[in-house]
């Protein structure tokens, strides 16, 4: 059986080292390129950090496979065995524009089941971490099980894209929810938005398009604390493809699905 405690300790050490590499780059001018569209940025640091993890993982755990956003990992089409899902910098637009509000996100799965989740807010030096079944921590602080909340008292992470004309959802659907909520926030890092749900600072998070490396770690954390992470129709998330994602505390999750998303009938 894999020694999850040992893997967790090792991964945390690499996280901290990667954080130092990122911090030391902040005073330099980085090469910035665009990927799928002008707002989809990648820097040499995104690539260097992914390669840093891949080199270390391959040397230490040669049998493990890796899915990395920047494409330096393996071609993974099935989730058997141990698979690391890595987003070297989640929130690259924030990294480039603000030099803060980004995170390294790593989820480690065994046969499709989340075992270890790590999200490192490099600038605040806040490391969210969980080993499935052992609770979730922010640095040394244990996070509490998530309380039930209802829509009028809830604040959720939501990008304004989804309440303007877009190709994925009728803006009126989420517009109705926005009117009834206490408020919305948009952090520009899916990993930090999910860590914020785990920490109880946000009550939920909704997006229409995320990749596995964006939510792999956050999903393990939120579920460990009794919250829900599914697609917007209430179905399980696909760890090998793009998904809509609904993250919410108990109560709020059921209310949003039933009263606003009509249980996926849209
Ligand atoms: C992005 C961020 C952003 C989310 C995008 C992601 P990246 O990740 O998480 O908040 O809205 O969908 O692609 O590109 O900065 O790693
Ligand atoms: Ca990302
Ligand atoms: Ca990224």
Automatic annotation (TrEMBL):
Q: What class of enzyme is it?
A: hydrolase
One biological process term from GO is:
phosphatidylinositol phosphate biosynthetic process
Give the domain of life.
Answer: Bacteria
Reactions that this protein is recorded to catalyse: a myo-inositol phosphate + H2O = myo-inositol + phosphate
**Residues bound to Mg(2+) 1:** 69, 87, 89, 214
EC numbers? 3.1.3.25
What GO molecular function terms would the record report?
inositol monophosphate 1-phosphatase activity; metal ion binding
- Which UniProt keyword terms apply here? Hydrolase, Magnesium, Metal-binding
Protein name per the record: inositol-phosphate phosphatase
Q: Which organism is it from?
A: Bacillus benzoevorans
């Amino acid at each position: 059986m894999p020694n999850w405690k040992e893997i967790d300790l090792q991964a945390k050490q690499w996280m901290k080292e990667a954080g130092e590499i990122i911090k030391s780059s902040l005073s330099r001018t980085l090469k910035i390129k665009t990927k799928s569209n002008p707002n989809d940025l990648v820097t040499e640091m995104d690539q260097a950090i992914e390669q840093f993890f891949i080199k270390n993982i391959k040397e230490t755990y040669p049998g493990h496979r890796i899915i990395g956003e920047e494409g330096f990992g393996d071609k993974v089409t099935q989730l058997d065995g141990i698979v690391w899902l890595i987003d070297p910098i989640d929130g690259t637009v924030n990294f480039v524009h603000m030099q803060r509000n980004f995170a390294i996100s790593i989820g480690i799965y065994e046969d499709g089941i989340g075992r270890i989740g790590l999200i490192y807010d490099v600038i605040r030096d806040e490391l969210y971490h969980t080993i499935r079944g052992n609770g979730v921590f922010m640095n040394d602080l244990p996070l509490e099980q998530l309380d039930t909340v209802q829509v009028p008292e809830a604040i959720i992470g939501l990008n304004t894209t989804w309440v303007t004309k877009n190709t994925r959802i009728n803006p009126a659907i989420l517009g109705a929810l926005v009117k009834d909520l206490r408020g919305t926030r948009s952090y520009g890092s899916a990993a930090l938005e999910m860590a914020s749900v785990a920490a109880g600072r946000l009550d939920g998070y909704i997006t229409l398009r995320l990749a596995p490396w964006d939510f792999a770690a956050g999903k393990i954390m939120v579920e460990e604390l009794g919250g829900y992470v599914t697609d917007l129709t209430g179905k399980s998330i696909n760890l090998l493809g793009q998904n809509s994602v609904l993250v919410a505390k108990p109560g709020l999750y059921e209310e949003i699905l039933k009263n606003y998303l009509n249980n996926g009938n849209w």
